[in-house]
């Protein structure tokens, strides 16, 4: 079972507070999108699996919410991933991957974060560009690997192959095994 990430709630409310003085319509739109995302998370928090179609739809909505915070600096390229109903990934795994991509790359309007979502055989491939800042030579935020470790552990507990994490000079790639569930 997953738990709701307190950082997600805190960051969302902080973003909302920052929008209030900017444009009266913007906070209203943000709250509507946030409520959809929050409802989705609550509906799936006790589920082990989601279909590829549900995951794709969620990630589009989630990036839409993040783009309100990051001034449309996150660009999603998503293949049509509406596979068989028995093809799944672990619930909320995509949210974790996108949160990590944003955390480690600090997208801004001058440096867009490119995210692609596609399929290669029995793997769902999520790839993001790497944005280097003047803060460090490698990553903009310190990493403890907790999210990656938790995701690997969840797949291990399901008896599935572990996700693969591949760091390239200009991109970071995650390969999530697609789980075939019996109907």
What distinguishing features does this structure have?
183 residues; alpha+beta; Heat Shock Protein 90; 3-stranded antiparallel β-sheet; 42% helix
Give your account of this protein's structure:
With 183 residues, the chain is α+β, with helices and mostly antiparallel strands. It has a single domain, classed as 2-Layer Sandwich (Heat Shock Protein 90). The chain is 42% helix and 22% strand. It is built from five helices and eight strands. It has helices at 6-19, 25-44, 52-69, 93-105, 146-157, and strands at 49-51, 74-78, 87-90, 113-120, 123-129, 164-167, 171-177, 179-180. The strands form two sheets. The chain has a five-stranded mixed β-sheet, covered by helices on one side. A three-stranded antiparallel β-sheet has the order 1-3-8. Helix 1 (6-19) runs antiparallel to helix 2 (25-44) and helix 2 (25-44) runs antiparallel to helix 3. The longest helix has 20 residues, at 25-44. The radius of gyration is 16 Å and the shape is globular. Mean pLDDT is 83; it is low at 136-141.
Detail the topology: elements first, then pairings.
Elements (H helix, E strand, L loop, with lengths): L5 H14 L5 H20 L4 E3 H18 L4 E5 L8 E4 L2 H13 L7 E8 L2 E7 L16 H12 L6 E4 L3 E7 L1 E2 L3
Parallel strand pairs: 2-4
Antiparallel strand pairs: 1-3, 3-8, 4-5, 5-7, 6-7
Helix pairs in contact: 1-2, 2-3
């Amino acid at each position: 079972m997953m738990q709701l990430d307190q950082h997600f709630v805190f960051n969302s409310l902080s973003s909302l507070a920052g929008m209030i003085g900017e444009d009266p319509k913007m906070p209203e739109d943000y709250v509507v999108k946030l409520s959809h995302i929050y409802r989705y998370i609550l509906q799936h928090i006790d589920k082990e699996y989601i279909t590829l179609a549900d995951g794709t739809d969620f990630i589009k909505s989630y990036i839409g919410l993040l783009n309100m915070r990051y001034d449309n600096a996150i660009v999603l390229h998503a293949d049509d991933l509406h596979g068989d109903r028995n093809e799944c990934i672990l619930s909320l795994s995509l949210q974790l991957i996108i949160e990590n991509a944003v955390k480690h790359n600090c997208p801004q309007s001058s440096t867009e974060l490119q995210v692609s979502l596609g399929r290669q055989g029995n793997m769902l491939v999520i790839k993001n560009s790497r944005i280097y800042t003047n803060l460090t030579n490698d990553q903009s935020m310190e990493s403890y690997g907790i999210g990656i470790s938790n995701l690997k552990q969840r797949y291990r507990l399901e008896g599935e192959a572990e996700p693969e994490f591949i760091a390239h000079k200009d991109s970071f790639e995650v390969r999530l095994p697609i789980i075939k569930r019996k109907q």
